[in-house]
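lol so apparently i was supposed to do this last week
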Amino acid sequence: MTPERFTRINDMLNHRQPDLTVCLDQVHKPNNISAVVRTADAVGVHEVHAIWPDPDMRVSGNTASGSQQWVNVKKHYQVKEAFDDCRAQGMQIIVTNFSDEAVDYREIDYTKPTAIVLGHEKDGISAEALALADKQVIIPMVGMVQSLNVSVAAALMLFEAKHQREQAGLYGINKLPDDYCQKLLFEQGHP
Amino acid sequence: MTPERFTRINDMLNHRQPDLTVCLDQVHKPNNISAVVRTADAVGVHEVHAIWPDPDMRVSGNTASGSQQWVNVKKHYQVKEAFDDCRAQGMQIIVTNFSDEAVDYREIDYTKPTAIVLGHEKDGISAEALALADKQVIIPMVGMVQSLNVSVAAALMLFEAKHQREQAGLYGINKLPDDYCQKLLFEQGHP
Ligand SMILES: C[S@@+](CC[C@H](N)C(=O)[O-])C[C@H]1O[C@@H](n2cnc3c(N)ncnc32)[C@H](O)[C@@H]1O
Ligand SMILES: C[S@@+](CC[C@H](N)C(=O)[O-])C[C@H]1O[C@@H](n2cnc3c(N)ncnc32)[C@H](O)[C@@H]1O
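anyway here it is w/ S-adenosylmethionine bound
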């Protein structure tokens, strides 16, 4: 590994936010999944959860732009399984949903450990996810179309979280377990 | 037309921001173009510019979610033609680019008449667009991947513009020409 690459990977690791994640509730279009994973990498999210009833689904395609290499996509068959995983890490669970209970996405405190849940391209968030979540949020829109593309919605929320966490000084300190970092440096050090 | 639909369309028209636009510099993947048009609608942009050397290109596909109906995509064959159009409307021209001259995208004052220029999926912004622009901006990232998906980058900038314009009280007042509004109400009033 070149010294430049070693420095680059270590820099990235220093910005990772292990207590921030995205959970995809049956999001199924490969382009969308890949774009979410790519944005996750860009804001420092090292692990994403995906609830996929289909065991063959995986991140692919060049929309991901190589981010699959840097972001772990953890597969779950059930909403409860994914949410239990996030709760075990102390995370609040924020679902995106079009309802009267939903608050503006910028009202949430994303400096707390947080899982952001996004829904299916056509059907939105599942009833099960809604029932198990802490809060509902919406990204206010002023046009005629009823919703944003799911990867766009994910990006707006993730970058809002990034801005809040920057203000709070949460970037620049390595918070990942040492063995994760060593393994990544070993496996990805040689491009 | 039902009274509800009439009210809904008029509400939308009151939020339109005729002095804010997006200019796609050879963005060519249909999914990306559609997602940008859909986000444009959501923030109140009624017209988008597309520089496409290929005369057959157009907005299609269900990623747009019907937004083509509400957002006009104006085609240009040359960068200069598109930029002249924006300049004639008094707009500053902000290009996204990975360079040392680029400033953080949130440092721009989007309450001014503004055109946001996005580049080709692989090649980025063209040399011609760079040469003719007023300012370069970047969306800071902290991961390993070199860039965001273009529709994600567009959405982050458009929603930043929306937030600034909301603060400045620029939504809620119809600023479009009367004949545009009448034509739209007439053509789109009957779903
Ligand atoms: C295309 S939307 C699904 C629309 C679906 N008809 C519904 O009513 O939920 C797909 C996903 O994108 C996210 N999304 C899209 N627009 C959003 C917005 N304005 N606010 C919050 N989330 C949004 C949500 O996660 C949603 O489940
Ligand atoms: C996939 S990128 C192109 C990358 C290309 N290799 C380059 O160096 O420009 C496609 C477009 O998305 C936009 N974009 C992606 N990430 C961006 C970022 N972090 N800041 C600003 N614009 C970005 C720009 O408009 C860019 O031209």
